[in-house]
Amino acid sequence: MSESTFHPIVADHRNKEVRTVETVEELDEVLDRWDALARHDEPALVFLDVGDTNNHYYIGLGQDEVPVACGYRHAVGKRPNSDECEEWAFANTWQEVGPDELVPAADAREATRRWARTGERPDNLRWIQDR
Distance of alpha carbon 91 from its chain centroid, rounded? Predict the structure, then answer.
């Protein structure tokens, strides 16, 4: 998927609101609004889908450091791993996220824009295979 063939993205905020976005700018607007809600309520993971099961993506919202996953890899932050995990609201359940999986929110959002434009795993973050 290249920028010239942008595919609509279905964004799902905890099964409470699902939006189809047609542009990166529209995706940014939706994520900005949902980030504000998550900061007021609880940290949440947002699932983004382009209709390709091998190219799913999610981003955390509501904190200054958030998790990001693309396909079957997740971004790696600078904090060391530990047994202490945070719980993030995801769909109708909770997802545990380790401290090593948290990256700066601004970097995560830039990665999301790059993924939305290209459909490729963004190169501004370091990625490892899911555990």
Answer: 13
Please state at what angle helix 105-118 crosses helix 24-40, rounded to 10 degrees.
150
Inter-residue contact 67 to 88 (CB < 8 Å):
yes
Rounded to whole angstroms, how far apart are CA atoms 54 and 109? 20
The domain segmentation of the chain, as residue ranges, is 3-129
Which pLDDT belongs to residue 53? Answer: 63
The distance of Cα 24 from the centroid of its chain, to the nearest Å, equals 14
DSSP state of 71: T
Query: SS3 for 50?
Result: coil
Distance between CA 40 and CA 4 in Å, rounded? Answer: 36
Tens digit of each residue's pLDDT (9 = 90 or more) over 29-69: 999 999 999 999 999 999 998 876 677 899 999 999 999 99
pTM for this entry: 0.89
